[in-house]
């Protein structure tokens, strides 16, 4: 089945290790006066380590996840939930098995989607994850255009967006991925207003520019441009372990700067075209990012995130926002973000501190 800790990344560069040992040097949230945070979301793994293999009783689901739609005052803690993961090959061939119906995990259904949407929380489905890297390769080799059409049909049926989480670090099938994107966009064209939930199409990249290099390079050059956008934005995922504040911003700065010395180079990414990822549950630990906003990285890095300047791409300062890994049970042997309070004291308090808009507004385009 799944290996524990799905988001553990096989990258811990020397600079990141050194940065983790240093005291944070980024300005606190209170000093932030830049672009408002627009994306403030959580990946959600269900109760079985991201399989979503059973239909949930919605009363039980609410009891374990209520913090996501109520930070304690009736307002949601997030404005986006990404249900993770859909198996790409099963989606392509329409698998029916113990955990899957017509290629879709049994637990990812209209009832769960509507539970979020009825409170103004946008919903997306993540296709892939590191456990399903080989399945992405197989599906893209078999029929990438049909996979894009199947993803678009699923998005239409549930009224959700789609996230591409293809974590192939070595020789990714970029031609196949392009065919997937083309097929999806033929059904759901890019929509700058954000009004059509199914038109929201995003991609995951590494925390910085030194892993998933080929995917990051291609997406930045071809899909994440501000003049001719194809994908809405990227998520810079969590690194191998929770970074320091300085380590997190160093990673995100790599996307802003690009890698001009690489051959071919990685172009700079506009601040308005990506989010930064942080852990709320990691291994056996519930992080301050879940329970204690005053001591959290979303507070410590907030000033930097809202004021990060363009460095060759884009015209406005500030990343789009934060994504948190991951709600409920991201690992079979790890902790959960369940009651009594879930992550209302961290993520929810941050939503209040940053005046996170619910529902999510139209996103900055440049």
TrEMBL record:
Segment forming the signal sequence: 1-31
Superkingdom of origin: Bacteria
Source lineage: Bacteria, Bacillati, Actinomycetota, Actinomycetes, Kitasatosporales
SUPFAM superfamilies registered for this protein in UniProt: (Trans)glycosidases (SSF51445)
Entry protein name: GH18 domain-containing protein
Keywords noted in UniProt: Signal
């Amino acid at each position: 089945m799944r290996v524990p800790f799905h988001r553990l990344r096989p990258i811990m560069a020397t600079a990141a290790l050194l940065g983790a040992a240093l005291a944070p040097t980024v300005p606190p949230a209170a000093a932030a006066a830049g672009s408002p945070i627009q994306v403030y979301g959580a990946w959600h793994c269900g109760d079985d380590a991201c399989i979503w293999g059973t239909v949930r009783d919605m009363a039980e689901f609410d009891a374990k996840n209520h913090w996501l739609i109520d930070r304690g005052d009736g307002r949601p803690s997030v404005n986006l939930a990404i249900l993770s993961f859909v198996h790409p090959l099963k989606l392509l061939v329409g698998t029916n098995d113990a955990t899957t119906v017509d290629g879709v995990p049994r637990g990812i259904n209209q009832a769960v989607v509507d539970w979020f949407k009825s409170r103004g929380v946008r919903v997306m489905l993540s296709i892939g994850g590191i456990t399903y890297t080989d399945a992405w390769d197989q599906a893209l080799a078999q029929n990438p255009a049909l996979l894009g059409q199947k993803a678009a049909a699923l998005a239409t049926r549930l009224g959700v967006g789609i996230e591409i989480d293809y974590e192939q670090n070595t020789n990714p099938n970029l031609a196949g991925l392009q065919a997937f994107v083309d097929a999806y966009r033929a059904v759901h064209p890019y929509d700058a207003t954000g009004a059509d939930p199914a038109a929201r199409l995003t991609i995951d990249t590494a925390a910085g520019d030194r892993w998933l290099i080929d995917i990051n390079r291609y997406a930045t050059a071809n899909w994440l441009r501000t003049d001719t956008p194809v994908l809405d934005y990227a998520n810079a995922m969590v690194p191998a372990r929770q970074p320091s504040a300085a380590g997190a911003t160093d990673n995100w700065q790599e996307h802003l700067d690009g890698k001009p010395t690489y051959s071919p180079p990685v172009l700079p990414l506009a601040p308005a075209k990506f989010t930064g990822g942080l852990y709320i549950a990691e291994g056996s630990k519930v992080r301050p990012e879940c329970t204690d906003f005053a001591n959290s990285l979303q507070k410590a890095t907030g000033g930097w995130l809202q004021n990060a300047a363009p460095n060759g791409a884009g015209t406005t300062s500030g990343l789009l926002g934060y994504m948190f890994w991951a709600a409920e049970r991201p690992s079979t042997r790890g902790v959960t973000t369940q009651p009594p309070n879930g992550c209302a004291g961290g993520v929810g308090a941050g939503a209040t501190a940053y005046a996170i808009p619910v529902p999510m507004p139209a996103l900055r385009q440049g």
